[in-house]
Amino acid sequence: MIFRIITISDMTTRITVKKIAELCGISQPVVSAVLNPGKLKSNVRFSEETASKVRAIADEYGYRPNRVAQNFQSQKHHIIGVLIHEAGNLPPDTFRNLLNKADEYKQLICFESVKHNDDDLPVFIRKDCVDGVLLFEQLDPKIHEAIARIKLPAISINAGHICKTHNVVFDEVDAIRQAVGLFEQGGCQRYVLTRTFANANHYATHERVSTLHRLAYQNGLPEPLVIELDNLLIGSASQKQDVINQLMRVFSQPEKIGLVDTGIYTTLPLHQILTKANRHEPDNLVHVFIGNDPTNDLLWPPINRISIDLPKLMQHAVSDLTRLIQGDKPQGPPVVPYQLFKAGDAKTED
Fold first, then answer.
1. Contact 314, 65 (CB under 8 A)
2. The whole model's pTM is what?
3. CB-CB contact of 127 with 330 (8 Å)
4. For 301-318, what is each residue's pLDDT tens digit?
5. Same domain assignment for residues 129 and 212
6. Are residues 143 and 38 in the same domain?
7. Residue 200 Rama label (left phi>0; alpha psi -120 to 50; beta)
8. Does some domain include residue 217?
9. Which end of the chain has a smaller Cβ tally under 10 Å, C or N?
10. How many domains does the chain have?
11. Nearest-angstrom CA–CA distance, 124 and 127
12. Eight-class DSSP state of 201
């Protein structure tokens, strides 16, 4: 048997399976079988002594698997694509929890922003570069049609049942019912819903507004007011003032208001406007935020919150997409419930 002497200078570059095999005096297939147990279909046999020697050399020189080679073997990219319209429309914790869960499944995450009325399909669909996609928000129907046509594994998050992919939706109807339940307990006489960057055709937007209108009608109350707060975030100084003036006019009315706050990054300025208008709980206001905390918990006013368990949602989404990629059926729940946290209750998130 011929051994090749490998010097330290040879180790200045990333160590490979070939170099480990030369150091150990064994074949490359044996090294691959030791370092990739269960990943490679192989009948290669080796002793525990050989395996220990290979692992010791790999640890000593900081061996890292060649992802390209592994992907070639498995015919997988080990990359999940995430399609969104606007990153700002998603709760910030979405990204953190998604990355954490994807890491548990040894998947990389790649984001692509989809422009409205874009003639071209997303790169994830046009090119073979991801194993599957998660679709946040309700995207152009042609995107869903293309995904179905090429049979790309996909899961839509809260995009309603119109999509031709596996759907995971939030129980928006129950979220509004929980909010209205608090309004009824508080004796509210008018319902107001505030929102940001809302798409009237989006599943969540439609379900929230239609349910609030229906419940107000059933309770014999006036038609709910829906107030757009986009300009509070991105408008000019005069546009911001117009929104503030509109809110002040609404909040200066004598009725006790039940406020459904669904805006992102607007809860704190909204709370300041409520204070300026002398709206205080429980005297003349019941304030409920629906969504996930867009700001640090320590900065939040003591209001009621109805939230989704994001870590659990991301767990289901990544797990189910991984199952689809592997050719199995998803197991996660099709409807994710909201949980109510009343003002003053302890609330912790991963």
1. no
2. 0.71
3. no
4. 678 999 988 888 888 888
5. no
6. no
7. alpha
8. yes
9. N
10. 3
11. 6
12. T
